[in-house]
């Protein structure tokens, strides 16, 4: 009879920490492969029903159905970016007015600094000239970084497209591999995990799209009532940036405040900032819990930690992928006996106000 060695807790804990560090290091150095692969996996899970429609209803081969599905999806996304770019091109017509308004604001700021701190205009200009010279010296580095970012974005889109297509084609093959990897008595659990992951990811991404639409509509209506120029463009920018949890809304507030300041008065800027903060509160307290949060049962503490770790590993892409990856991990942990405690830790609090004994009864096995 085989006896398994029972290790002390501190050894198990040390092994867990070492494993986390190794996985984090591999995730960091393998971002070029992992980020587009995970994005492709999420999009493939979202597009499975569309591909099934082409295969079953129209009797198309899986390869043809996959090509049509992926091209259709990326075509819609590309058209959305084209509409956004066309809205952005309208700003160039008012660039002289932007420049005049900004210069007037700078002059007012210089006068305030001179009156408040006694720094003369000539001294302020000397400081600005020195700063501009340093910025010009580093201009080549900034330009190279920007070009590198554009090339990385292009590579990301290309590989995401390819991964989405191949995962759609080989989805059944991958499921069979997972079944072969596990014992027959675990096949039901494996299929449950696959089904739940597909359901949660699909609902989460659809919820994000609905959130973008609702937030964009609220911002467009508010800015139109206030009388802010380019309200449609600013609403679209807010909806897109709002996909990034906690960070996107503040970035969009900054952009909208600058554009509003360039086309309107400072009073309008304060009103716009107040309205955007109010919309953010409505979004975080009502829209997200009902539309997005109800699909992903992950508590806010670990969601925030996942977003921070995702940004440290993969930047903006990691912030977007953090929540669905955490949700997938929770689904797996909830169905693996040894990991159920961790799945419970990642989940929401379902027993608010419950006593210790009542909670203990819910997690303890019943005795016959």
Describe this structure in words.
About 20% of the residues are buried. The chain has about 375 residues and is mainly α. It is globular and about 80 Å long. It is built from 15 helices and no strands. The protein has a domain at about 30-90 and about 155-180. Mean pLDDT is about 75; it is low at about 135-150. It has helices at about 10-30, 30-55, 60-90, 95-115, 120-135, 140-170, 170-180, 185-225, 230-240, 250-265, 265-295, 300-315, 315-335, 340-345, 355-365. The longest helix is centred in the middle third of the chain and has 40 residues, at about 185-225. α2 (about 30-55) packs across α3 (about 60-90), α2 crosses α13 (about 315-335) and α12 (about 300-315) packs across α13. About 80% of the residues lie in helices and about 0% in strands.
Q: What's the structural blueprint in terms of helices and strands?
A:
Blueprint: H1 9-29, H2 31-56, H3 62-89, H4 95-117, H5 121-137, H6 139-169, H7 171-181, H8 187-226, H9 231-241, H10 248-263, H11 266-293, H12 300-314, H13 316-335, H14 340-346, H15 356-363
Q: Structural class of the helices, strands and pairings?
A: mainly alpha
Strand count, sense and closure of the main sheet? none
Task: Specify the number of helices.
Answer: 15
Radius of gyration: 26 Å
H-E string: HHHHHHHHHHHHHHH
Q: Which residues sit in consecutive blocks of at least 5 with pLDDT less than 50? A: 135-148
Number of DSSP-assigned strands: 0
Helix content: over 70%
Shape field = globular
Task: Give the termini separation.
Answer: 28 Å
Beta-strand content estimate: under 5%
Mean pLDDT over the full residue set? 77
């Amino acid at each position: 009879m085989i006896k398994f060695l029972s290790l002390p807790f501190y050894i198990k804990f040390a092994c867990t920490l070492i494993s986390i560090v190794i996985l984090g290091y591999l995730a960091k150095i393998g971002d070029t492969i992992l980020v587009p692969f995970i994005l492709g996996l999420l999009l493939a899970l979202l597009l499975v029903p569309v591909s099934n429609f082409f295969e079953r209803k129209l009797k198309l081969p899986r390869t043809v159905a996959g090509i049509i599905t992926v091209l259709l999806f990326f075509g819609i996304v590309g058209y959305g970016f084209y509409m956004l770019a066309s809205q952005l091109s309208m700003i160039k017509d008012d660039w002289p007015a932007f420049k005049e308004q900004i210069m007037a604001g700078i002059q007012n700021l210089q006068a305030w600094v001179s009156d408040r701190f006694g720094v003369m205009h000539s001294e302020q200009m000397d400081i600005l000239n020195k700063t501009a010279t340093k910025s010009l010296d580093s201009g080549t580095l900034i330009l190279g970084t920007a070009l590198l970012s554009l090339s990385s974005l292009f590579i990301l889109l290309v590989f995401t497209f390819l991964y989405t297509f191949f995962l759609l084609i080989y989805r059944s093959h991958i499921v069979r591999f997972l079944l072969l990897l596990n014992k027959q008595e675990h096949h039901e659990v494996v299929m449950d995990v696959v089904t739940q992951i597909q359901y949660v990811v699909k609902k989460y991404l659809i919820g994000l799209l609905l959130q973008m639409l609702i937030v964009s509509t609220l911002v467009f209506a508010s800015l139109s009532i206030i009388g802010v120029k380019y309200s449609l463009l600013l609403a679209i920018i807010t909806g897109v940036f709002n996909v990034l949890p906690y960070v996107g809304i503040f970035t969009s507030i900054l952009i909208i405040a600058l554009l509003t300041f360039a086309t309107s008065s400072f009073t309008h800027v304060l009103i716009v900032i107040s309205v955007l903060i109010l919309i953010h509160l409505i979004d975080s307290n009502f829209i997200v819990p009902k539309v997005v949060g109800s699909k992903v049962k992950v508590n806010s503490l670990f969601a925030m930690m996942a977003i921070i770790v995702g940004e440290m590993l993969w930047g903006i892409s990691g912030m977007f992928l953090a929540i669905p990856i955490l949700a997938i991990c929770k689904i797996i942990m909830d169905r693996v006996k040894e990991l159920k405690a961790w799945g419970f830790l990642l989940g929401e609090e379902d027993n608010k106000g419950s006593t210790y004994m009542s909670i203990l009864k819910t997690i303890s096995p019943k005795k016959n």
